[in-house]
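new request in #modeling-help
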Amino acid sequence: MIFLDNLINGLSLGSIYAIIALGYTMVYGIAKMLNFAHGDVIMIGAYVAFCGLQYWGLPPVLAIAVSMIACTVLGVTIEGLAYRPLRQAASLAVLITAIGMSYLLQNTALMIWGANPKSFPTTFINSVSIRLGRLNISIATLITIFANIVIMVSLTLFTAKTKMGKAMRCVSEDRGAAELMGINVNRTISVTFAIGSALAAIAGVLLCSSYPILQPTTGSMPGIKAFTAAVFGGIGSIPGAMLGGVLLGVIEIFGKAYISTELGDAIVFAVLIVVLLVKPTGLLGRPIREKV
Amino acid sequence: MTKTKRKRLIYNLITFSVVIAAYLILQHMIDAKTITRSLKGQLVPICAWIVMAVSLNLVIGFSGELSLGHAGFMSVGAYTGAVVSGWLLNAFQMENTVLRLVLAIVAGGILAGIAGVVIGIPVLRLRGDYLAIVTLAFGEIIRNLVNVLYIGTSEGHLNFSFLHKNLPESAVILVDGAKGAVKIKPISTFTVGFVLILITLIIVLNLVNSRAGRAIQATRDNRIAAESMGVSVTKYKMMAFVTAAVLAGMAGALYGLNSSTVVPTQFTFNQSINVLVFVVLGGLGNVLGSVISAAFLTVLPEVLREFADYRMLVYAIVLILVMIFTNNPAIRSLVNRLISPVKALLRGRQPSALQGGDKA
Amino acid sequence: MSEVRRHRSDTRMVPVPSYSIVPERDVNAIPVLETRHLGIEFGGLKAVDDFNLTIGPTEIAGLIGPNGAGKTTVFNLLTKVYEPTSGAVLFRGKDLHGMSIVQASRLGIARTFQNIRLFDRMTVEENVRIGLHNQIRYDMFSGILRLPRYWGQEKKQHEKAMELLSIFGMQDLADETAGSLPYGVQRRLEIVRALATDPKLLLLDEPAAGMNPRETEELMENIAGIRDRFQIAILLIEHDMSLVMGVCEGICVLNFGRVIAKGTADEIQANPDVIEAYLGKKRTEQNGREEEKA
């Protein structure tokens, strides 16, 4: 039973990682940059939803919608102001900028909401649970796993079928050629950030439904782990993000349960290192060849 | 002497002069008791952060790899320093604080160097963003590990235990898990810190102006071309990485032995970013810049209390702006156009100092 | 080999057992480069297939072919950027199997790059000194501690670098930042830097790209001069036919990863397969020429 409990917890945590990892993997695939601030967009999303539920008295669905809109605007703004001017710059410069952006978001949240952790309000999501024999599964867990699957399927369809989705694939394949073909690269990258950030809002709400402590650094550790998940699954690959996220969540929960609670994070990072050394392109990634 | 050589010599002379002059002035202020208490308390940390910034600059500015786990090496040094110092005191009754401090710093450097080799071997096979994220991961792993580390000393031996506190009854506890390194006798001095800065500067400046240093910079500018010239990229990236780790470990020992406890939370990812800010603001590849920005940005929050509250916010904004201004071609050419008349003016005034080198 | 002849017209090309041709003067020496059935596949696509080439110790050879024929891939195979999936590269009789780029360089293969790859932020002299990295050496500690060895070897490096630069009339640019040089000069610096590694075989990837006719003319003289002075073999990829025909003794034509012709300039110019590869199928030479003009 404990094993099954852990497995379900792992799947739930892994689904959250997977949704965050999608934001990383899409941005990395298309803009070729590691958006270090992605984890902090999650945190902002969670705070906005928190305000919606706690202060503005919005129903949960509306709170999530407001949070998604806020994050989308935020994501597109970040991209336009900070990352777009560095489109041609070395990856080192872009990464440092993204780290700066991550700190900017954390400290802005600190200014607005203070350093004291807020406890995320209980909604129907995390108050009700289902009994299944001796198993006790919360609605939050089920919704998280379900949301993960829905998002994955719709994103896969989006990139395969729609015009914008195809444009994204073109830009990720060869930015220069895409531009010559008349694809508006800047707009495509903006849309990518918009989608990634909207997903971040959902991830933020789900994260705080399961782990209801909200503070300015809430997003950074899940963010880094989700990046690990994206790398694990193969960066740039949507199914890879799902696989990597879920596996990582399960590994983390099992590591904490059976090895050591204190070393949970260390285990996750050890997985990242091993994956990068053994198969740097991840489980489902394509090999990349350096042009000479 | 060629123009380039002369320029570098002048640069090095200025760097050393600035550091030595600052030391003499501060030492004079200490003797004359005109120094404020808060500044006096900051002197050793300033030295440690300068060494951290200069060593990180070797990795980022000269070898061109972003390391986000530099604080991890500092923590290895801090813990090692605390343990070695406590051990020497308890087991050998070594009362000479300067000798103890020096031995602790050397030990901190060696252990951090070993950590650097162990981490560098896998990490330096990776590139760019992956390398950065893995150094971050290693920094966090180090922090996780010292969190469950227990070290004590009894009967002249060191006792280690991991995950669970399992030390002999008689042992004097040196490292106590999440409580960190405890009951440290603060023995760091400003003068030792100053000497450490000088050593760091000599190592880094001499290294970058030598065969190995040029190879390090070549791997930064173009990896494939460097390999095609017969330069082993891994070897020279490793050299920069491990040298930086050793220096960070020494800085860590100095820093740790300045207070009575060292806790793992002092060396989070945030500290690595802090040092990154020093390096970026001082200029990538600019050693003097790192020295000045590390010193200035360590003192500033102490002097400006209001600034301390907004410090990280301001750092973040400055980091972003510096990167955009130095890397966006349009903005850079605009800035160049604006400052070129000033440059010409400056050049006109002192034409011989940097310009008229003999062409060999 | 004191009497290396300057001009292609004086050189008689002789076939050797591997179905390649080398100049008469090199026939009895061990070839500097010999490839045997060399090939590489990228995901099922044969980028280079059954590539056989022999180059004599002082030969100037050309590798030509339409865009995408696999010329640069051949260079990457020779310099160990890629490990071949079939066949072998023999360099002065030694199999390069499993070697790294660095090892290949140390054996004596140097190259330039199609898209220039200088150390942009370093000075011209430092770029050449990187070429001298394995020629004039001292360890890290001599450097940090400024031991006498440091000063001696630094002086040697400086003198050698300046000597190489002055051969190409670049001594006055020694203190300039490499990235700030004009395009043509950057290409020349790449050659100097490659020569500094003391190679036995120099690979030039489109050395005349982006050069004006006058610069190309100069380059042609330089290439012949390098061979005469350094007594090394040169293999060059080039689209400028006047340069290839003017300086190369043996020419190898590649199309779709396969060799379609080998021979002297005159033989290549007369080869129908080559004309077809360059101008397309089912077109007479005349039609093709007109199309090219238009």
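bot summary: Chain C touches chain A at residues 42, 72, 76, 81, 113 (CB under 8 Å).
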